[in-house]
Structure formats: structure tokens, C-alpha cells
């Protein structure tokens, strides 16, 4: 496979250093074997997340000097609004400080206690806001998404039969909305086909059910459509993105991913009544509807980042850089989720650590050990992230128990990814030495962020 060179030149650098193994042993122990609790200064290559870790362009940095920091009526919001309306096609834009704030707004204005929200696999903060506002989340993703070894395209698709059955069993009036993620993070960054979006919208319109997208990685999803779905090879990324959103009633957006900035987000809507309700709540939780928790300069940088993300050269390099790391690991028989997704390579911790049960938290154990051996920070996406049943207090045991190697945008080179792959390949040769973990501190909400562990 031909991997394109970086479509940019580097004109500013940040120094990084690799601690000794002895120092890394101390650091991961002090962090309670939770990679979220490590200090960034102790990380060599940081693959914890692609959220807010992007490198901004010269044009974005230059735009920071044009920040209109007016408390109300910022001109930078006007630019952001017009850009989002033009690219996505929605009528109304409500700015927020990041994506999870938009998730909270959407839940507040759409959910009645006792309702259901169905979607193509949960995401941690999304499900939290859904449940916090009184709804139950139901997963209606196609079954292939739960099989790490199933190498089929568009594993993020909603199963239409599951959706039909849900409507029959629960009643359309009891479904607050359908949450369609593009791409699906916890399934391995898997995309959704345009046909599936079209079919979901048609079915939901028939039953008067709204469809909202988690649009965080919509540009990555558009690339997969262009690459793999018939009829889109000669269509631009911008045109694909616009069509994708034509099958939605709105979306939540974390600008920290495909908008190529370090902070910010928004809620986009077509319904005026919902928009007015969202504006009431954003004042209470975030700020005025013309900044919503962002500075003027942040909104300016986001508007430019959204436009840069539509460039084919950028997104092609982005996807193929992730694929480069995944293919290096596959060539060494490292178990990963297939096909390789858009923003990360996901190690299959069940098969990487077959000697550990899910009770022994294999993904958490593997993420901690990767840091100890290599200085590379990764993320657990398995039992710890899944949480507990609110009634029984028993752990959820997801079918996918993974460690996410998330590639920040425009930050690392192929040489950095070679280092990551070599370290994981070396660890795989001694995988039976990876010890299981147990909780020593477990918060009640979103436990994966701040929980602490010890070896069993």
C-alpha cells in the first residue's frame, strides 16, 4: 500500500523525551495504573485520545489574533455559524465548550423520563447524558460490530431490523430519538454507509422519530464513503458531508476532533422550537448563545479548521496514517479490530491477554503495561469504560475489550508510529507476563477517567 507523505510542512516543534523504564514503573504506579492520570510531561508518544490534541494550521493560529471577545454578538460566532450552516446544512447552531456539553443540551430538550434512545453502540459521555436525563440507551448496531475479527465494510451501520423491532416493542412515541454516530468510536472507528443513513431516516420519518448524529468524526466517515461506497468515488468530501447531514434532524459536534481545534463544539438543529429551548439551557450551563463557553478566537480557529478538514489531501493522509500503524501490527499477528477504522487502531485485549478474564480488566492492564514498557500512552475501552448496571451494580462485560491507540491529527510522523508498533510487538512476545488489575478507587460516574487500580 502506498502511504502518502504528510501534506504539510512543520514550522514549530514541541520537545518530547522518553523516561527510563524505572521511572515509568514509578509513574504508572503513582497514577494508579490509569493512563488518564499520567502527567503529559511523562509521556513519550501520547495516543490517549484524538480529542483536542490536534496541531492547528498557520491560518488557524493567525485567526486567533482576530478574536472578537464581545460578551454578546461576537463576529467570530457569525463566521462559525455561517461555516457550519454551509458545510452541514442545518438552520441553527448553538455553540458549546465541547461535545459533551452539546450532548447534555440535546438530552435536556428531547428526552422525557422513561423514554428510550437507540443508537449504533454507546459512547461513554453520550450514554451518561442520556441516562442522566431519564432515558434508557438501547444498542441497535449490526452484529458484526461486536466481532473484532469480522472484516466487513461499514460495521457502524444501524441494524434496520433491530430498529423496526424496537419501534414495535416500545412504541414510536416512547423513543426520544435515534443517535447515529459517524464514525462509531467503541466499535473501532467504524463508518456508516450513506445508504444506511438514508434508510434509517426514511424509517424514522415514517414513525415521526427524530434522528440526531454524533458528528464528531464526520469527515473521516465521509472518506470511507468516498473510498468504499458505490457512486461516491468522484464526489468531493464536502459534498458527501453535506449529503450525510441531509438525513439528520441535527447533530452534536465536538470540534476537538474533525474541526481540528483544541477546544469547542456545537449543537446543530433544524427545529426552531428545539433551538429556542437549547438557547435557554446554554445560557444556564455554558454562556450566551453567541459564544456558549468558547472564546471568539476559538470560534474563529474552528471555522477555519472545519474548512481545512474538507480537503481531500488532509483526510486521505489522516486515514492512511492510522492504517499504516494498524497494518504494521497486523503483519506481526497482533490482534486488532478489523477493518482498521478512522481515528485509531484498537488492540483486541481479549486475544492479546487470553490468560486474563474480563473480571481482571485485561484492557486496563494492557494499557498500563504498554506505558510501562514503551512510554506510549493509550486508552482502555472495555469493562472499565462500560461501567456497572445501576440496579445490580455488576460490571458490564462488553463483547469488545480493547485498548485504543488514538492518532492525533497532524501531530506525529510515520517514524513515531514505527516506534509504537515495535514496542507493542515486543510486548506481545511476553504477553503472558501482563498481570490483571482490580479497583482501589471507583467513582460513581464515568469511572474510567479517574479510577485507580492495583495488581491482583
Automatic annotation (TrEMBL):
Hydrolase found in the keyword field: no
Swiss-Prot/TrEMBL keywords: Lyase, Pyridoxal phosphate
Top enzyme class: lyase
Cross-referenced SUPFAM superfamilies: PLP-dependent transferases
Reactions this protein catalyses: L-tyrosine + H2O = phenol + pyruvate + NH4(+)
InterPro entries reported in the protein's UniProt record: ArAA_b-elim_lyase/Thr_aldolase, Beta-eliminating_lyase, PyrdxlP-dep_Trfase, PyrdxlP-dep_Trfase_major, PyrdxlP-dep_Trfase_small, Tryptophanase_CS, Tyr_phenol_ly
Pfam family, one: Beta_elim_lyase
Gene Ontology molecular function terms on file: tyrosine phenol-lyase activity
Keyword Lyase: yes
Domain Aromatic amino acid beta-eliminating lyase/threonine aldolase: start-end pairs: 46-422
EC numbers on record: 4.1.99.2
Needed cofactors: pyridoxal 5'-phosphate
Recorded family membership: Belongs to the beta-eliminating lyase family.
Record text on subunit structure and interactions: Homotetramer.
Name this protein carries in UniProt: Tyrosine phenol-lyase
Amino acid at each position: 500500500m502506498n502511504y502518502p507523505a504528510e501534506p504539510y510542512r512543520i514550522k514549530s516543534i514541541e520537545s518530547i523525551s522518553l523516561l527510563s523504564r524505572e521511572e515509568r514503573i514509578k509513574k504508572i504506579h503513582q497514577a494508579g495504573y490509569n493512563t488518564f492520570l499520567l502527567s503529559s510531561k511523562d509521556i513519550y508518544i501520547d495516543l490517549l485520545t484524538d480529542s483536542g490534541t490536534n496541531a492547528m494550521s498557520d491560518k488557524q493560529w493567525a485567526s486567533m489574533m482576530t478574536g472578537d471577545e464581545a460578551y454578546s454578538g461576537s463576529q467570530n460566532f457569525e463566521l462559525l455559524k455561517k461555516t457550519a450552516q454551509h458545510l452541514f446544512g442545518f438552520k441553527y447552531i448553538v455553540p458549546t465548550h465541547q461535545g459533551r456539553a452539546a450532548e447534555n443540551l440535546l438530552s435536556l430538550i428531547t428526552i422525557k423520563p422513561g423514554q428510550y434512545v437507540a443508537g449504533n453502540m454507546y459512547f461513554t459521555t453520550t450514554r451518561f447524558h442520556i441516562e442522566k436525563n431519564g432515558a434508557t440507551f438501547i444498542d441497535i448496531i449490526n452484529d458484526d460490530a461486536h466481532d473484532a475479527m469480522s472484516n466487513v465494510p461499514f460495521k457502524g451501520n444501524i441494524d434496520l431490523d433491530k430498529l423496526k423491532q424496537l419501534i414495535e416493542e416500545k412504541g414510536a412515541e416512547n423513543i426520544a430519538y435515534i443517535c447515529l454516530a459517524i464514525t462509531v468510536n467503541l466499535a473501532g472507528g467504524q463508518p456508516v454507509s450513506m445508504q444506511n443513513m438514508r434508510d434509517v431516516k426514511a424509517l424514522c420519518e415514517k414513525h415521526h422519530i427524530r434522528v440526531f448524529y454524533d458528528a464528531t468524526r464526520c469527515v473521516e466517515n465521509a472518506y470511507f464513503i468516498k473510498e468504499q461506497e458505490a457512486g461516491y468515488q468522484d464526489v468531493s468530501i464536502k459534498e458527501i458531508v453535506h449529503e450525510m447531514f441531509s438525513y439528520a434532524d441535527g447533530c452534536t459536534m465536538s470540534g476537538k476532533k474533525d474541526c481540528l481545534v483544541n477546544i469547542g463544539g456545537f449543537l446543530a438543529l433544524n427545529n426552531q422550537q428545539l433551538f429556542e429551548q437549547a438557547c435557554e439551557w446554554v445560557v444556564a450551563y455554558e454562556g450566551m448563545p453567541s459564544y456558549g463557553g468558547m472564546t471568539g478566537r476559538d470560534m474563529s480557529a474552528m471555522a477555519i479548521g472545519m474548512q481545512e478538514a474538507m480537503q481531500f489531501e488532509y483526510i486521505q493522509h489522516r486515514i492512511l496514517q492510522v492504517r499504516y500503524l494498524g497494518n504494521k501490527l497486523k503483519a506481526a499477528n497482533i490482534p486488532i479490530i478489523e477493518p482498521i477504522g478512522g481515528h485509531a487502531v484498537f488492540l483486541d485485549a481479549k486475544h492479546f491477554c487470553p490468560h486474563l478474564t474480563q473480571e481482571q480488566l485485561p484492557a486496563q492492564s494492557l494499557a498500563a503495561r504498554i506505558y510501562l514498557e514503551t512510554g506510549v500512552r493509550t486508552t482502555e475501552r472495555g469493562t472499565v469504560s462500560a461501567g456497572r448496571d445501576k440496579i445490580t451494580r455488576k460490571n458490564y462485560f462488553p463483547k469488545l475489550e480493547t485498548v485504543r491507540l488514538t492518532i492525533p491529527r497532524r501531530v506525529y510522523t510515520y517514524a513515531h508510529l514505527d516506534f509504537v508498533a515495535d514496542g507493542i510487538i515486543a510486548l506481545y512476545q511476553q504477553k503472558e507476563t501482563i498481570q490483571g488489575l482490580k479497583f482501589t478507587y471507583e467513582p460513581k460516574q464515568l469511572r474510567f477517567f479517574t479510577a485507580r487500580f492495583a495488581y491482583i
